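[Protein data]
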Amino acid sequence: MEKIPLEWTTKAVFFSQIDWADTRFRITYGRPMAALIPSIRNVGLLNQAVLQEKESGQFRIVAGARRLRALQEIGQEPIECKIAPVESREKGLLLWNFFENLDRGFNPVEQALAVKKLSAFLEEKELIQEYLPYLGLAPKKETLERFSIVAEISPLYRQALFEGRLFPETIELTLKEFRPVANLIWALFVFLHWGFQKQKEFLTELKEISKRIGRDWVSILLSEFLTEPCQRPLWTPQQKGVAIRNFFRACLYPTLTETEKAFAQSIAPLNLDQRSKISPPPFFEGGRYNLEISFSSSQELKESLGRIVPALEQGKFDRLP
């Protein structure tokens, strides 16, 4: 790895001179300032922010955006900053910012931003072998491809990725397979509070259902079977998610779903108590049902059998599918 040669001058800068919208070097995301403000108030600024002079006369931030925001909130200006000249190499400034932040680790949003920005200056082999491990990522080409794709996510969903409500793997799969409806799918995932496994299963099932019933993804996602549960104000996200997953299951396994309904209807007239449970054979194949009775006394067992035996004598068990 080559050494990063940079030259600095020091200058007092006012906040009005900073172009806050220029974020070409920024890879920081989701870092709170709650502890930074009292630290600066009590011991001062330990590390100067680094800026680059722009041809317009303003300055872009190379490193230290949070420090500058904290100082702005405190109301302290002008600020002594390190200044890189206009002609400074962009690669060198980006790597300076990267290594300055290396000791704190990187969250998934920062990993994606870093991969995207470093890709513009580094060869693929160098990025994979040397820089992915710095980011806490496996040095593999598929990892590079995944986080390059994750970097495309709308800024609207970065917070969900940061909070673990969206995941790099499911973001990658969504953009690869369902790009036209990616934002709709992510909104659904966040709304339902689904974890990684449920998100992955949903995407797999959505693709299979679209093939089976010959409907496009948009019509499935906007169908009443998905929108109606989401609009129920008294349902929890878990209840809404269960309703949607049950709809998908019915689409994928219509015969099994109908058999399950018939089973539920057939055991209802048995009038069993809560201590008695009838379980069907797996996938209703083999014809062997299981009857389980839980009891803590002979009286409880007698009461449970008092419901089962009459139903058996009346032939109600013969109606099981």
